[in-house]
Amino acid sequence: MVTRAHAEERDAADPLRRFRSSFVNEDPDQCYLDGNSLGRLPVATVTAVADLLRQEWGGKLVAGWEHWIDASQRIGDRFGRVTLGAAPGQVLATDTTSVNLFRLAVGALKDRPDRRTIIVDEANFPTDRYVLQGIAREHGYRLVTIPNADPSVTSHELITPDLLAAYLNDDVALVSLQVVNYRSGARQDVAALTRLVHSHGAHLLWDAAHAVGAIDLQLDAWGVQLAVGCTYKYCNSGPGAPAWLYVAQSLQERFQPAIDGWFAQRDQFAMGPTFDRAPGIRGFQIASPSILGLTCIDASLDVIEAAGMSEIEEKAGRGTDFMLDLVDAWLAPLGFGVDTPREANRRGGHISLTHPDAAQIARAMRELTNVIPDFRRPNVIRLAVSPLYTSYAEIFTGLERLRDLVASGRYRSVSMEGTNVT
């Protein structure tokens, strides 16, 4: 039997326990298990943003651009080194995940002009599917959608090499997949899938939004050439913080992303009449970056770098293992299922529970128990371990409150009217 004493022992032995105090926590009674949607605010970010406002924007005004002009590259390089396993000159911190995905997807298609097929999977994040649907519709591509959203078709919404191989042929220009599935938490075999797609002469564009900051990504070593992701989940850079894009050095000279802008111009301040792309990763930037947002990314990286991604991934695995132990002991008898791989190296930083009343239970967790999960239709409650600040005691308390909420039937008293945000 798992007890609170076990949780406390795990916390005492946790090598990341010292980082919990690095984050703002206004409500110590709250169990925050939704870091896969939005990470906590680092204490250092408050100071960093205040300094930017007073000293740089307030003090230097437009002269601040002498320092800010290369911020997307500078912070992109640091982000790549700390979280992505990427050598310098391959990452930009810029724009949104959706904009970056669109630009790299169109660039990948232009790089394969004789091919007319795009492959995505049904369980992929909605925006990714919508972006690719729009590209296919506007430019006359054939979009093939792998039917893996139903667990009866493929377990935990995974894309395995054997499954994907059946869809690959000489007409495929682009495949787009998630590193960690946003709903189930299943982790793909990035290296194997990348080798497979490249062996068929196609591009593979990875969305690492639900993976970065939770698992130790090694994009260079895995042979990845194109990837995008956000910074506001496990990387704790704040709501709407700039995203990032990764383009391998080997592709940059010939690759032509959609949307050219003056920050990608070779002689930016010549304000010339025609576009001449700057060499390297700078040639993938569009326009002025969000300096406030980049400041938040830089501050959050201080904590991540001090902890180390290998330790962070270890804690994500141990923490979700602990969650699953509690689910098996307490929640399975109450009708909960698990739609996440049992092996730690096959999942990211969250687990997905299924229950017929998941929507009402998730609402009641927030309103009645001060436990924060999220809900995904039709029947999934996601619970995350954010390794830098989630304690084992918090996991224990959160699932204990969930158990009592459902066993008592109290969740049925909560109204389902109101907010559209789940």
Detail the topology: elements first, then pairings.
Layout: H1 4-13, E1 31-32, H2 43-60, H3 65-68, H4 71-84, E2 91-93, H5 97-110, E3 117-121, H6 126-139, E4 142-146, H7 161-165, E5 172-178, H8 190-199, E6 203-207, E7 226-229, E8 244-247, H9 249-252, H10 291-307, H11 309-331, E9 337-338, E10 350-354, H12 358-369, E11 371-372, E12 374-376, E13 380-384, H13 392-408
Parallel strand pairs: 1-11, 3-4, 3-5, 5-6, 6-7
Antiparallel strand pairs: 2-8, 7-8, 9-10, 10-13, 12-13
Helix pairs in contact: 1-13, 2-10, 4-10, 5-6, 11-13, 12-13
Can you characterise this structure?
It is a single chain. This protein is of the alpha/beta class and 422 residues long. It folds into 2 domains: 4-32 and 308-413, Alpha-Beta Complex (Aspartate Aminotransferase, domain 1), CATH 3.90.1150.10; 47-306, 3-Layer(aba) Sandwich (Aspartate Aminotransferase, domain 2), CATH 3.40.640.10. Helices cover 38% and strands 12% of the residues. The chain contains 13 helices and 13 strands. The chain has helices at residues 4-13, 43-60, 65-68, 71-84, 97-110, 126-139, 161-165, 190-199, 249-252, 291-307, 309-331, 358-369, 392-408, and strands at residues 31-32, 91-93, 117-121, 142-146, 172-178, 203-207, 226-229, 244-247, 337-338, 350-354, 371-372, 374-376, 380-384. Strands 2-8-7-6-5-3-4 form a 7-stranded mixed β-sheet, sandwiched between helices. Strand 12 and strand 13 (380-384) form a beta hairpin. Helix 1 runs antiparallel to helix 13 and helix 12 (358-369) packs across helix 13 (392-408). The longest helix has 23 residues, at 309-331. The chain starts with a helix and ends in a 14-residue tail after the last helix. The mean pLDDT is 96.
